[in-house]
Amino acid sequence: MRALELVGFEGPASLQLGERPEQPPSPHEVRVRLRNMALNHLDVFITRGLPKRPLPAILGSDGAGVVDLLDQIAEVGIGACKVHIGAAQEVLHRTRHLFIRQQTAVINAMRGHLAEFGIVAPVGRHGVEELLNVVADPNDKRVPEIARACLSAFGAQLCRIKEQILEFDRLIRAWHRSNEMSMRLDEAPGVGPVLATAVVATVADPKSFRSGRNFSAWIGIVPKQHSSGGKNRLGNISKQGDRYLRGLFVTGALAVIRYAKIHGTKHRPWLTALLARRPTKVAAIALANKIARMVWAMMVKGERYKEPVALAA
Is the pTM of this model over 0.85? Predict the structure, then answer.
């Protein structure tokens, strides 16, 4: 591995890059592959011999890097804790989310421009395909040629974005299959590969949260407290946490509710009672809160998902 070595005491000019053999981490140590490194004022003093060290010496106490076990970029020694191993995977999730937002923006732009010419299509994937067919048809005189050229550019951009999103999904599934904790979280209802890998990549140490409620509050899916005089008043959810994770948990909860409405809710009495007295989206927030607490418990205790008694019967 390459290292910045101090070979003399003539100031920063005595620094040079050298090669060092890679060493495995000792107990209670972590080896980090540095991406960026800076010299602080103490390092500058050392280059001037204050204090003197045996030469050659390796400097650079301020650094930023990646501990990534999947890609074997770094290794964790025995007893090491509070190590964020999913920095690269977190970048993958945030990039995929950005591309999805760009896809939505392109589709909305195409719908808006075509609506100016009286061309509308149903909401959903099939509606977008209808609009793309209209743009690609040169015999359709409802669209002027100048507008057709612009909309064709939108269509080409949309195809490229979709291909990139599919590639991101492939990378997420590959990492999901190689991560034991992500595979365990996938067993919980409403949790799929995308949510499982996002939680593992984002939450470096689940034990830093004292309870499942603290974890839910960090995500932002717990109600605000307006309690006074011994009377509990709960308001809307705070929305003050991780917006990306919150959206994934709510999406997973909506999938559970949709499945329950199609196949029946008799095996989920808690959800049945909730849907009977609350709107669907309000029930989805409550269910997302419940799922988040289950995920936290599975991560902290290292357990697999256990079906409730009502479900197992």
Answer: no
